[in-house]
Specification:
alpha/beta; D-Maltodextrin-Binding Protein, domain 2
């Protein structure tokens, strides 16, 4: 039987459109079951806590539970890779951060994913700056004295960090490159052990984050010289910024952001972005984030476009610094 060309083309066009109908319907109905949030680090850390606070509020907006799944290892790249390979249906997302979605690019030559290509950005969730901290009996009294002292004595100083690829580590690389020094870097398995070593006087100084160091600073167990941000922290209001204290080029803020696997439907991404935005505007969520020294990003820095731009800019910023330090992980 011969089918007229016009009839054939209309039938073919209709058949081609059929698969799209269920996809649109699924996106409109989303979500119909719990959503898994991969946290690529162990429970109890900043990434984990931020994911739970934000996820709890997003669950109320979307009407489905957010289930945190901790998949630690390799500086967060194992969990991030698992999330990247998940079905792009909106039911598996990941709480990425500076390390997993920027620093990992130059640090891991065989990285299984491209942060700016293999994920769909949902939005920036929180951020927090670093502080230059030292043991409480470290001789310098302020940041200018600190700079002079470290430059004169770096060959016999120990600088702690929370493991290669951590925010503490890249902060150390940046500070050392600015001061043109090469102290002995002492790795620890996380920010808490590094801070404990500083409290005990086993190391001299480090680039910590407000989240980890604030309790010890407030208790007087360690000292700090400046916060690496444009504005003072409400958690540590007496601590000057690096710009105020004389080292304006040292500004480092880590961040947490939600991502979905590439090819997740735009309608689903938009629902997640909107839910995140509502979570960040919720008074209780903001209070809980502030209590652990996390800053909520301004409206202008939220959303999909802003997060993708941040990822690209951070990769561009940190790649030459890490390459100059000749640090790689196979």
């Amino acid at each position: 039987m011969t089918i007229p060309r016009r009839t054939f083309l209309l039938a073919a066009a209709g058949a081609a459109a059929l698969p799209a109908v269920p996809r649109v319907a699924r996106a409109q109905a989303y979500p119909t079951r719990p959503i898994t949030v991969v946290v690529p680090f162990a429970p109890g850390g900043g990434t984990d806590i931020a994911a739970r606070i934000v996820g709890e509020q997003m669950a109320r907006t979307l009407g489905q539970q957010f289930v945190v799944q901790n998949i630690a290892g390799a500086g967060g790249t194992i969990g991030s890779t698992r999330a990247m390979r998940a079905d792009p249906d909106g039911y598996t997302i990941v709480m990425g951060q500076l390390g997993t979605h920027a620093v990992a690019v130059p640090l891991y030559p065989n990285l299984a994913y491209r942060p700016d290509v293999d994920f769909e950005p949902i939005g920036l969730a929180a951020e927090f700056p670093l502080v230059i901290a030292a043991r409480k009996d470290f001789p310098p009294k302020d940041l200018r004295e600190f700079v002079a002292y470290v430059q004169a004595n770096f060959s016999r100083l120990n600088m702690a960090h929370a493991g290669v690829g951590s925010t503490f580590f890249i902060g150390a690389l940046l500070l050392n490159s600015i001061l043109r020094v090469n102290p002995t870097l002492v790795p620890f398995n996380g920010g808490a052990p590094a801070t404990n070593a500083l409290v005990a006087g086993q190391v001299d100084y480090m680039c910590s984050d407000v989240l980890t160091s604030a309790p010890q600073l407030q208790a007087g167990l360690i000292k700090a010289y400046a916060i690496a941000a444009a504005a003072r922290s409400p958690v540590l209001p007496e601590l000057p910024t690096t710009q105020e204290a004389g080292l304006p080029e040292f500004q480092v803020a880590s961040w947490f952001g939600l991502f979905a696997p590439r090819a997740t439907p735009k309608a689903i991404l938009d629902k997640l972005t909107d839910a995140l935005d509502q979570a960040l505007d919720d008074a209780n969520a903001r209070k809980r984030l502030a209590e652990i020294a996390l800053d909520v990003p301004d409206k202008s820095r939220r959303g999909q476009t802003a997060l993708l731009a941040l990822v690209k800019s951070e990769i561009e910023r940190w790649t030459p610094i890490i390459k100059a330090a000749n640090v790689k992980i196979d």
